[in-house]
Each structure stands twice: as C-alpha cells, then as structure tokens.
Specification:
Bound molecules: zinc ion
Strand content: under 5%
Radius of gyration: 23 Å
Oligomer: single chain
Structural class: mainly alpha
Number of domains: 3
Amino acid sequence: MLAGDLAGLTFTETLAPRAPFRSFREKGSHHAEGKPEIPKRRINDCPEHVCGSLIHARMPVVNLAGANAAAQESIVGKGKSDGAPLLVLIVMHVSRLIRYPIDIVSVSIVLCALSLQLTALARNWPWYFVFPIFFLIREVNLIEHNHMHLSIFRSRFLNALLGWMCHLSGGVPLDSYRLHHVTNHHRYNNRFDAGRRDWSSLFGFRGTRFPDRPISKAYYVLSFPFLAHGETLLWFLRSPTSKPTRGFIVSMAIVGPVSLFLAWLNPVGFVTFFVIPWVGILFGMGNNNYDQHKGCEMTDTHNAANSFLTFYYTVLSFNVGYHLAHHHKPNLHWSLLPDCHEALMRSKPGSGLQPQLAATVRESARACSESS
Ligand SMILES: [Zn+2]
C-alpha cells in the first residue's frame, strides 16, 4: 500500500516543499474546503498570497508520514523497504537536509566549480580552462544569490559551509552579498534619495534622474564593485558587532588563509583560476543589475524590473530571468518563479518585459480576450 503511494509520486510532487510528518489531507483545508493546506511555517514561500493558486494545484496529496518512515527504515536497515523505489527514498532522505530537493543540482554545481578550480590550480592546467570555470562560477554566483534569499539547507552549519564554498569559488562573501542585495537593493530598488539609498542604484549619480535618466551603462558597470561593495564594507565598519559583520569576518577568516595557501602553492594558477573570475563576477553583477532595471518606470510591482525569458536566462540561470517575479516575491524559491511570472502576466499582460516584447504580449492577450 505504502509502496503504491510512493510509486504514485510524480517528479513535480517530489520537488514540492517538504511537509511535516502528516498528510495534507489530515491537516484540513487551506483556502477552501477540499484543498490541501500549506504548512504555516512555509506560508511565506506560498505564492498563493501574491500570485494566485497555481502552486496549490501541484502540491502532493500523499501521506509523507508513511513515506518518511519507510525511507528511515530503509536507510537505517530496520524492517523491509516494501519495494519502494530507491530514487524516492533518496529524495525523502535528502529532503531532511535540503528544503527543495531540486537544489541538489545547486549544491553539485558549487562542488563541481570549486573542484575544477582546485584541480586546475594543483595540476597547473592551461589558462584556457578559465572559460568553463568562469561559466560555472557564474552559476555559483546565481546559486549564492538564491541561497541568501532562501537558504538551501535546513541546517545552519551546512548553510554557512555552502556560503564559504561560494565565497572561495566566486569571491563574494555570502554576508556582504546578502547585506547589499537583500537588505539594500531589494528594499529600496534603485531609489536614491534622502531616506532610501540603494547603493547599487542606477540613479545614484550626479546628472541622473529617477526613474527615466540613469547613468551610462559603462560607467555604472565600472563603478559597481567599488560603490556597492565599498558601501557594504563601510556598513560593516560602522556595525562591528552586528550579525552580518560577524558572519563576514568568519567567512574571511576561513577563505582568507585558504586563498593565501593556494596563492603560495601556485601563484599563476591562483590568479588565473580564482582572482580573474572573481573580478569578472564583480563587474558582471553590475552588468546584470543594470539590464534588469534599466527603463523600468518603478511606479508599481508590475514595472519594477525587467524579465528576460530566454533559455540562457531561465534554464541556464536558475530562472533569474523571471526578474520581475523575483522582485515581487524575493524569498520565493527559484523553481517556482515561472508560475509567479505567469500569474503576474495574467493580472497585467506584458509586465516586466522589454517594450517590444511587452507590446506583442499585450496584443495577443487583447486578441485572446476579444475572440473568447
Ligand atoms: Zn535578488
């Protein structure tokens, strides 16, 4: 019976947030009778409250209590496994560590990038290996971005460990990234006035005007590492005992000596496979931020950011291309952003898209409504 329940799980269902050890049906209704309930502690991740009911339709209605018990028995070797598929048991076990099992991919990429960098340095690989390494480090930067919005693991230590690995691989400490990006950028979103100062605003320069006259892209990208990260360092200096500062110091205390050792081991390799990608990422972050916000009217949530829905910016970029949806609900897991984007588009067709694409979407939406 239990094996049958487990075998009935679809791939989408296994990607859903882990429920507490009882079924959704046992917990009663959420918004309407007969619908599964979202556990309270996950309510902030539920896009129902901002984006519609798309996710609820995908939530599994299975008894995870039984499933987890079977997984436990199988893993510790007690009792029989009832023939449950090994993959499901593994996913159940991983879901005890990771909020969303799909983030096994995220963790694997970080491990892969760092392993490749260390191997290239230790084996003195040719300089052109920096290209695949740089591609992976870009992914690491995106994973770190997702991780600071919604931590990947349930364990505080594992979250910190992943942050240190991202720091060593991509050069950006998790705590400074979080301070600048979550506390500052998402909070003020390019405002730069007396009360709201986004350190990475496109309009924080003399001669600019919010929201229609930004600084030039070239100057913005070149100045981004100094302004955004410089302001972050100043904040740390002004708040020496704060939690972000302590996290930053711990990360530097771990990554700093490791970096020095690697530089001593192979100075040229360290510069090629670590320092150059780090610098590239710093300027790349400015480049992305400019594209994601340039031209936005910033009058409401439907025009606060640009979306880029190409294969590269969605599938190969952990859905960062759904940037309007990301600004709309920053703590929403990256795998759920397409649904949130869809809901935003339904409420206002063309939201967050570049003008030409937005006009096409509005036109087709108008045609659809007229024909129906
Ligand atoms: Zn973000």
